[in-house]
Structures are given as structure tokens and as C-alpha cells.
Design goal:
The complex is a heterodimer of chains A (about 180) and B (about 550).
Chain A: H1 17-43, E1 51-54, H2 57-71, E2 72-76, E3 79-82, E4 89-95, E5 98-100, E6 102-106, E7 111-117, E8 122-127, E9 131-135, E10 139-146, E11 151-156, E12 169-175
Chain B: E1 2-4, E2 11-13, H1 14-45, H2 54-87, H3 96-118, H4 136-165, H5 175-205, H6 214-248, H7 255-268, H8 285-320, H9 329-332, H10 339-362, H11 368-371, H12 376-403, H13 412-438, H14 462-494, H15 524-549, E3 553-554
Antiparallel strand pairs in B: 1-2
Helix pairs in contact in B: 1-2, 1-3, 1-14, 2-3, 2-4, 2-5, 3-4, 4-5, 5-6, 5-7, 6-8, 6-10, 6-12, 7-8, 8-10, 8-15, 10-12, 10-13, 10-15, 12-13, 12-14, 13-14
């Protein structure tokens, strides 16, 4: 009785058979979903990372520039193109409104990505595989990627970072 | 001080009535701004028209978010809280003076926020993530609005105490008011979190605090941001129960269950805001999994309980009226000509099948990788907040107009159509946004052709088709919303007065005859519908997990 006080003895009324059934099913599904997430941490291959370091924009910028110096193989549209060896640390910097550097990776190899921002929050959205992560200033987010497909991939910023937000797009090339 | 309603027989405190009316009017004004903004946004994001320039796109997006998601809903909720704690309980307003103070603060906040946005001093979107900074007056506006709302919530509690003390109702609160209590408790926690984040942010914008940590800001902000959506959900569900009762005389098969589900909301909901941080660098996986699943699923379970309890209340009442043939005779013979009924029923369906199903995928730690910050996210909350909450609120106003404003509903034929137009439009919009997001299309993005950027990227050509659906859905929704605003404004300001029960266009159902002895299920039709829902839900989950497994490996 949504508008009136409930009838006498409402608290002791038995729950209907079908309502009980439904609640039991819903409860089992909820618990299963909870355990499934934990199971995926053990057996699944796609999990947001465990590791994050504190950093500063200055420090992270210095690390990125050193990384670019070390592995640079060319330039495209004024952005350095970098080919790091497999199993190495890769630095990717987001700033208004660009990603730096362009990365050349090998399919099936692991890379420890360090991702951070110089200024505001940015979104790391890898297309067309459609994997999305947040990028914060002051936090070095470590994600270990293993590309499973080859081709050209683009990093679209999908967190609003000022008027030029829609021009912020980076590139990753994955070779066989 | 009181008038006795000649339709419901309830005592109405005239001072409360005035405050309910004014809050409701502010709600409609906010919605109108939100809807105009929505139209501009749809026509900009649809690349074929691409109406606004970049800076105005983000400005209007900020305007839309605050008006449609915050101001419209909170003003309406404050009106609802006053209604549920005075009129429904046959009681009086504890302190009309504080009611006026609350309203003044909220209107002041509303004006400051809209002013700073429109003058280009707050292009920060609704989330205003630090270190992105707005003018200090913007933060001040948000704080004033929140403080005003908090005063309103406290008044609600004060009203309840008075009603209890003066014994104006029976031993237990009516279910509708009980639901509002849950909403008000969540609101108190939420608004307190809001103060914790917005006060330092204001000081930071004034230069008194030097730095704001991006991670901490986002963590605390979502304690406000998502929990505030749970106020809406809770208020919406209170309205579902109200709607079932008013339109067909439906009451919960078991009220204990319905009340327990409201309690679950209070327990589960605030911590569950963690699902906004699933791909953030800060929190650990254990923290993420615990907060989103263990705690969120208490709330999910509660929603599923309500999803059964409300339709089964309708079904049980209808069956007792003699609509017992087959599984769905009760539904076929429901009062579809009553816009409040169709609004509530569509709200249940849209909230469950679009909002609920997608919400769980968004809220799981790993599948969040697919959807985070894509157009799927607004697609999801178009299903919950717009197709669910807003539509339910619209339905409730069809009773509010004759009972509180004492006016007949103008254009009644149009009103019968309105929930279908709005509900249909928003379903199309929400689903097409969710699919576009699945193709990787980002949210909050001015130009998906990346003009001016160093590279370009073309989304899957299938997206062109869904952009057309998006545009159609958006425009139809705007039409549905404008229909409602037209009906409400015309009724309230130029409508015919209601002189008595004979002028009531909507039925207020009398209680159905008591149940006869019967065997088997109480609500087999509802059980079928909820099992169908579960099937859709599990298929959708499987698809998303399968898809996740096919991506690049990441850990």
C-alpha cells in the first residue's frame, strides 16, 4: 500500500513462492559475478594493472625524453617514432593535445607501458581494439601489454582535456 | 493552514503545497534548459550536421549535464520529499521558513552555475575533474545548491518526526514514504561527500590551496557523483510503487521484501561508486573488486527485487479484478490510457533492460576496459536516469498537476502519447549510443574525424548507421520532453481548475477485492518477464566477456 500504512501483520506475511524463487536466482547470479572477477584475475589475460608509481610531470617528462633518445628511429609529423625492444619499459606521455612518442612494437611480445600526463586527466583509448584506461598527472600507470594483432592502432583521448581535446590522437604500429 | 483534498481526502498543508509547487516549477525550468542543450548536442555529435563550434559544444555539454542530471532531478526530488512527508502522511510542514531558505539557496546555486557556464567560465563538464579548473563562482554555485538541497532533506526528516509525534498516520510509514526515507539517507551521505570535495576545490580555485591531487579528487567526487544517481534510483522506485498503487490499486505481494530492498540500497550504494575508478591508476584490484562487486551487488540484488515486486503488485491487483486468463491478460487489460501507468511501466522496462543490464557490465572490473569513457557510458545512463528516473517523474506529474496544482491536464490526448514518444526515443538513443561506444566512439568528444589532429582514424563504417539512429532517437526524445513541458506549463498556468473528483481525468484506483484461495504462483506473468530479463542479462554478459577475451593481453 504505497500511499497508506501497511495492513496489520504485514511483517509476518510469508513471501510468495515465485518471489522467493526469483530472489534466490538473482542472489546466485550476483555471487557468481563477484567470484568471476576474481577468477579472471587468476586465469584471464585482460586485467587493469596492479602497479602504479607516484611521479611528477617533470620527472615523467625527463624519463620519456630519455626513452625517446635511446630508441628513436625516425619522425612522423614532428612526433618521434620509437622502437623499443620487447620486454622493455615503454614511456607514453599525454599532454594537451598530443601523445608522445609514436611506438613501434612487435606482435606477441610484452611491453611494460608507463603512462602519465603532463597536465590534466586524459583517456587512453586504443582503437580499433577498444581498450580504455585513465591517464593522470602525478601517477605513473604501469600496464603490461602484449599486442595480439598487427597493423596501425590509434590512441584516442577520451577524457575531456580542454578545447583541443578532439585533436589529441596518437599512434602505435604493431609489426609481425 | 490546511485544505482537505476533495479527491483523496488527505489534508494538505498549504505552506508545504506552495513549496512543492515552486520546487516543481524550478525542476521544469531546469529540464527545459537541459532539453534545449540536448538538441544542440545531438545535432553537433552527429557529424552530418555538426552544428556547434568546439568550445560551444563543451560548454553546452556542461550546461546539459548540470541542468538535466542535477537541477531537474534534485528540484523534483525536494518537491517529492515535501509531498511524501506532509501530504501523504496527513501532516504539516515543520518549518516553512527553512523550506524557503532551502529554495533560495538552490535557486542561487542554479543561477550561479548556469551563469558561469554560459559566460564561458566553467567549461569543465559535469565532473569538473581537477586539475581542470573553473571560475570560483561555479564551485560556489554548486556548494550553495547542495547546501540548499541538504536543508530540504533535513526538513523532510523533521516533517517525519512531527508526523510520528502527532500520530497523523498508522504504526508504519507508507511504502512510498519509506522509499523516500532511503533516498533521503543516501542524499545526506552524498551531499556530505560533495562538501568534502567541493569546498577544497573552491579554495583551490581561489588560490588558497596550492595543488589538487587528480586521483584523490576523482575518488571523492564519485562519492557524490554516483551516489547522487542512487538517490534518483531510490526516488524512482518509490514512484513505481506509488504508480502501481494509484493506477491499479497494486500493493506489494510482500511489503517486507520491498522494504528490505530499500534497506539494501542504503547499505550497498555509496561504496559502489568505486566502479568509476576501475581503470584508474590509483586503487588496487582488491579494492576495485570488493567495492564494485561485493557491495554493488547488494544494490543490484535490491533492484532485481524491486523489478519483481512492482510488476507483481500490478499483476496481483489485476488478477484479483478478474483478469486471470493466461500469463499476460492482466497486462493487456492494464490502464494503458493513463499516462502515469504507461510512464511507470516503460520506466521499469527501460531501466531494467537497458540501464540495468549495461550497468553491470560497466561495473565489472575487467569488462570496464571495453566501455570506460566511450559513448556506452552515457548510453547506459540514458537508460537509467532518463528512460528510468525522468520518465517516472514525468508520470508522477500527471497526478501532481490535478492534486497539488489543482489544474486539469491540458491536451490530455497528447499526454497519453507522451510517455511512448519519450520512452521510445530514449530507448533508441540509449541503445545506439551503447553500440557506438562498443565500436570505440568516445564520449565527450567534439569531432570524431579528428580534424586538426596529427592523424585521423575512421571508426567502423557500421557506426554511420548507428549515428542515424542516434540522431533520430535524440530528436524524438527531445520532442517527447517538449510535449511534456508544454502539457505541464499550459496546465499549470493556463489550465482549467479542478473543482472536484469529477474533473479528475486519471483514475485513482480503488483497492481490488481480496484474494481468493489459490494454488501456484502469485504472479506467473511477472516471473516470466523477470526470467526473460535474466536471460537477456546473461547473454549480454557472455558476449562482453567473450569480446574482452579476444583483445590484446594486458595486466
Amino acid at each position: 500500500m504505497a500511499l497508506l500504512p501497511p495492513e496489520e501483520g504485514w511483517y509476518f506475511k510469508r513471501v510468495a513462492k515465485d518471489e522467493k524463487m526469483w530472489i534466490a536466482i538473482a542472489l546466485v547470479v550476483c555471487l557468481a559475478l563477484f567470484f568471476w572477477m576474481i577468477v579472471w584475475h587468476v586465469y584471464g589475460k585482460q586485467n587493469p594493472s596492479f602497479t602504479t608509481y607516484r611521479t611528477t610531470p617533470q620527472e615523467f617528462n625527463a624519463l620519456t625524453q630519455a626513452f625517446i633518445q635511446k630508441y628513436k628511429i625516425g619522425e612522423e609529423k614532428g612526433i618521434p617514432v620509437v622502437e623499443p625492444p620487447p620486454n622493455s619499459d615503454v614511456f607514453l606521455l599525454g599532454k594537451m593535445w598530443a601523445w608522445e612518442p609514436i611506438l613501434v612494437l612487435k606482435k606477441g611480445q610484452e611491453y611494460r607501458f608507463h603512462i602519465s600526463s603532463l597536465d590534466l586527466l586524459h583517456g587512453f583509448s586504443l582503437q580499433p581494439v577498444n581498450m580504455n584506461f585513465m591517464v593522470f598527472p602525478g601517477y605513473d600507470y604501469v600496464l603490461t601489454f602484449r599486442p595480439t594483432s598487427t597493423g596501425e592502432f590509434y590512441i584516442v583521448c577520451n577524457e575531456f582535456c580542454g578545447i583541443g581535446h578532439h585533436m589529441m590522437i596518437g599512434k602505435i604500429i604493431v609489426k609481425e | 493552514m490546511f485544505r482537505t483534498c476533495d479527491i483523496t481526502g488527505l489534508k494538505v498543508d498549504l505552506r508545504a503545497e506552495r513549496l512543492i509547487q515552486l520546487n516543481a516549477v524550478m525542476a521544469v525550468v531546469s529540464l527545459l534548459i537541459g532539453v534545449i542543450a540536448a538538441l544542440l548536442l545531438v545535432l553537433t555529435r552527429w557529424q552530418v550536421v555538426h552544428l556547434l563550434p568546439a568550445e560551444w559544444y563543451y560548454r553546452v555539454l556542461t550546461l546539459h549535464g548540470l541542468n538535466a542530471l542535477i537541477f531537474w532531478i534534485v528540484f523534483f526530488e525536494i518537491a517529492g520529499l515535501y509531498f511524501g512527508s506532509t501530504v501523504v502522511l496527513n501532516s504539516r510542514m515543520s518549518s516553512p521558513k527553512f523550506g524557503w531558505l532551502a529554495l533560495t539557496l538552490m535557486v542561487l546555486g542554479f543561477l550561479l552555475v548556469n551563469y558561469t557556464i554560459l559566460t564561458g567560465n566553467a567549461d569543465v563538464l559535469m565532473t569538473s575533474y581537477a586539475p581542470l579548473q573553473a571560475h570560483s563562482l561555479y564551485y560556489l554555485g554548486v556548494i550553495l545548491f547542495a547546501v540548499g538541497a541538504l536543508v530540504g532533506v533535513f526538513l523532510f526528516f523533521a516533517n517525519l518526526l512531527i508526523a510520528r509525534k502527532e500520530r497523523t498516520y498508522g504504526d508504519s510509514l507508507p511504502l512510498f514514504t519509506f522509499g523516500l526515507v532511503a533516498a533521503a539517507i543516501i542524499a545526506t551521505l552524498t551531499l556530505a561527500t560533495g562538501a568534502v570535495i567541493y569546498i577544497p576545490t573552491l579554495l583551490w580555485s581561489l588560490g588558497i590551496i596550492k595543488t589538487m591531487d587528480a586521483g584523490v579528487y576523482k575518488l571523492v567526487w564519485w562519492g557524490l557523483g554516483h551516489s547522487s544517481q542512487q538517490i534518483n534510483v531510490t526516488a524512482m522506485i518509490a514512484i513505481w510503487y506509488l504508480g502501481a498503487f494509484l493506477t491499479v490499486g497494486g500493493t506489494s505481494i510482500n511489503e517486507k521484501v520491498s522494504r528490505l530492498a530499500f534497506v539494501f540500497y542504503v547499505i550497498g550504494i555509496n561504496v559502489a561508486s568505486a566502479h568509476h575508478l576501475l581503470v584508474d591508476p590509483g586503487p588496487s584490484p582488491a579494492w576495485k573488486v570488493f567495492n564494485t562487486s561485493y557491495v554493488m551487488y547488494i544494490a543490484v540484488l535490491a533492484s532485481m527485487i524491486h523489478a519483481f515486486a512492482v510488476p507483481s503488485a500490478v499483476e496481483s491487483a489485476q488478477r484479483r479484478r478478474g483478469f486471470t486468463k493466461g500469463l499476460f491478460d492482466w497486462l493487456k487489460n492494464a490502464p494503458w490510457g493513463n499516462p502515469a501507468f504507461s510512464a511507470v511501466f516503460l520506466s521499469i522496462i527501460i531501466f531494467g533492460f537497458i540501464g540495468g543490464v549495461t550497468g553491470v557490465v560497466n561495473g565489472m572490473e575487467q569488462t570496464n576496459i571495453i566501455v570506460h569513457n566511450t559513448l556506452s557510458i552515457p548510453g547506459h545512463f540514458k537508460g537509467t536516469v532518463v528512460g528510468g528516473t525522468t520518465l517516472a517523474f514525468m508520470g508522477a506529474t500527471y497526478y501532481l498537476i490535478p492534486l497539488i496544482f489543482r489544474k486539469k491536464i491540458a491536451f490530455f490526448g497528447l499526454a497519453k502519447l507522451q510517455p511512448w514518444v519519450f520512452g521510445g526515443g530514449i530507448s533508441l538513443l540509449a541503445v545506439s549510443m551503447y553500440i557506438l561506444g562498443a565500436f570505440g566512439v568516445p564520449r565527450r568528444h567534439y569531432d570524431i574525424t579528428f580534424s586538426g589532429g596529427p592523424f585521423t582514424y575512421t571508426f567502423n563504417p557500421a557506426t554511420d548507421f548507428f549515428w542515424v539512429l542516434f540522431a533520430i532517437g535524440g530528436i524524438v526524445t527531445v520532442i517527447g520532453a517538449l510535449m511534456w513541458i508544454l502539457i505541464v506549463v499550459f496546465s499549470v498556468f493556463f489550465g482549467q481548475s479542478v473543482r472536484g473528483p469529477q474533473d479528475m481525468q486519471l483514475q485513482i484506483a480503488s483497492p481490488p477485492p481480496p484474494a481468493k484461495e489459490h494454488h501456484g504462483f502469485e504472479a506467473p506473468g511477472t516471473l516470466t518477464l523477470t526470467l526473460l530479463f535474466m536471460g537477456v542479462f546473461l547473454i549480454f554478459l557472455l558476449l562482453n566477456w567473450g569480446w574482452l577475451a579476444a583483445m590484446w593481453e594486458v595486466r
